[in-house]
Write a structure and sequence with these properties.
The structure holds two protein chains of two kinds. By secondary structure, chain A is α/β, with parallel strands linked by helices. Chain A folds into two domains: 178 residues, Rossmann fold (3-Layer(aba) Sandwich), CATH 3.40.50; 96 residues, N-(1-d-carboxylethyl)-l-norvaline Dehydrogenase, domain 2 (Orthogonal Bundle), CATH 1.10.1040.10. Chain A is built from twelve helices and eight strands. An eight-stranded mixed β-sheet of chain A has the order 3-2-1-4-5-6-7-8, sandwiched between helices. In chain A, helix 1 crosses helix 2. The longest helix of chain A has 20 residues. Chain A starts with a strand and ends with a helix. Chain B folds into two domains: 88 residues, ATPase, nucleotide binding domain (Nucleotidyltransferase, domain 5, 2-Layer Sandwich), CATH 3.30.420; 189 residues, Nucleotidyltransferase, domain 5 (2-Layer Sandwich), CATH 3.30.420. In chain B, the strands form two sheets. In chain B, strands 5-4-3-6-8-7 form a six-stranded mixed β-sheet, sandwiched between helices. Chain B has a two-stranded antiparallel ribbon with strand order 1-2. Classes of the chains: A alpha/beta, B alpha/beta. Chains A and B meet through loops of A and helix 7 of B.
Amino acid sequence: MSQKVVVIYGAATMGQELVQAVATAGCEVILIDHSEEKLNTGLKKVETALDSEIARWGLTSGEKRAIMSRIKGTTDIRESVKGWLVIETLKETLDVKRQLFKELDATCNPATIIASNSATISITEIAAGCKYPERTIAMHFQSPIPKVPLVEISRGLKTSDETFATAVRFAKMINKNVVSVYDCPGFITTRIILPMINQAVKVLEEGTASCEQIDTAMKLGFGLNAGPLALADKIGVDTVVFYLENLYGETFDQSYLPAKLLKKMVRAGYKGVKTSKGFYKYGSDGLRLSASGLRVEQLSQAQHQ
Amino acid sequence: MHGGDKFSSSVLITEEVKNAIRECIVFAPLHNPPNLKGVEAVEEILPKVKQVAVFDTAFHQTMKPEAYIYALPYMFYEKHRIRRYGFHGTSHRYVAARAAQLLGKPLNELKLITVHLGNGGSVCAINKGKSVDTSMGHTPLEGLAMGTRCGDLDPALILHIMKEYELTISEMDNLLNKHSGVLGISQISSDLRDLEDDWPNKSDRANLALDVYSHRIKKYIGAYIAVLNGCDAIIWTAGVGENSPIVRSIVHKEMDWLGVKLDLEKNEVTWRGAEGDITTPDSKVKVLVIPTNEELVIAQDTIESINR
């Protein structure tokens, strides 16, 4: 176990962004994914992201070389013993995360901190099968991780003060501000943003306003970087539904009951930027096409196609 | 180290001095913290050994307000000490003193302009041994075009570029500090030797980078001759200043009205540690190449501070 190496589990978007942020901050990183293909794609995407940083003058090519030299990838979960901190970024389902935590708990040295990037699942529940739950903690990073200077840290019922203090130190080391809560699925950001997205979808569904009008109003009216529908596309419409259902199950608060249109969109494959269509359409470069806002009637046609 | 406006000379390190250096971290977040760590490490290992702090900014503390105040709301100076500090002070001070020896005149009778060109670069106007004005500012980004730093530019461009390309503060910071200067113009290298290789036949862009680099130096020399109301000698020092006859020849070309006549042959052979005058005997203003020796100044300051 090296004091320097951070292990990141899961090579999807969040994993890639986390690898980039952590390696850029100067730490050594091991990225683990069970699928060789996903791992290679993930590593390639990290490199592409660094290249676009260079194109935006954010990095020099020398700095990129140094960052890439700090990143390693493997499909072997046993490599996680090399880290003093393991952060998982798997799919937002309890079973998957709980299973991984159990495995990590069994393989890693008891001093290793095991963190989950879960947005909506209780860390206490994820760590339920662990022999050493005091070293588990939730660290919720916001996408795009290299740009968002925030991490929300949630302590589980059994998380030790030492684990919490170390997580805070790590967050500061990678230049993130910390807000912390106690065992609170959804933290602050997800808890508050989801009802807004959900309401925005309902306003669209009712025909009160178009996608563009809704996003423009919220963006300019409240000084947001992105409107709620554009944000849902970025998060992934299916992920938004996942989050809502998880939080509804957790709180039984009506504001988390997913709008009908959201589920309809997921079934029709309108999952946001990653499928090139959601509330807006996107080009292959991931940039939004102009005047491409979803009209509700469009979707009923799509289903019939 | 960055001494802000708290230090105008080298000092023996005490708790008080350390606190003052700590207060200057905001001016030099990359330099002061590691230096302080070094000081503390030595204190731990060799508790009886005295330590001396030498500040790159100290020499320029003789500048008058008209030279160091920016034309911004005065509140920024009063509240945040935002002003010109200048850098490379140890080097400017050393070569000025050495120039007096070479010219055979007392330093306090001389008007000098010193040009320190390394990876970063700055020009200093020195009257009677005291810094009157210098090209680097609150940070080492102002003034000359450097290896990767832009130096002077229209500040509105920063706003314009950030808006147009939606850049974050750290991206813009990198653009100005690491992607600009002769590297930014030439897109070949930040190292002048690479641009001078086969000069002037390498490429138009390499020549342009050298011309922009040299033109900026010429402009500062002209300005400082006006500030000093005259000039006895111009001194070239540090990596590029000592070793680039090409830059020196571009800068001093057509400067005879100001009293500078370069001896092209002497210019060509004075490099790689050589010291000397590179002007013709009838040149009113002398141009000297003097290898800098910051280590010597640091050693002398240390002895002086300990004996004080």
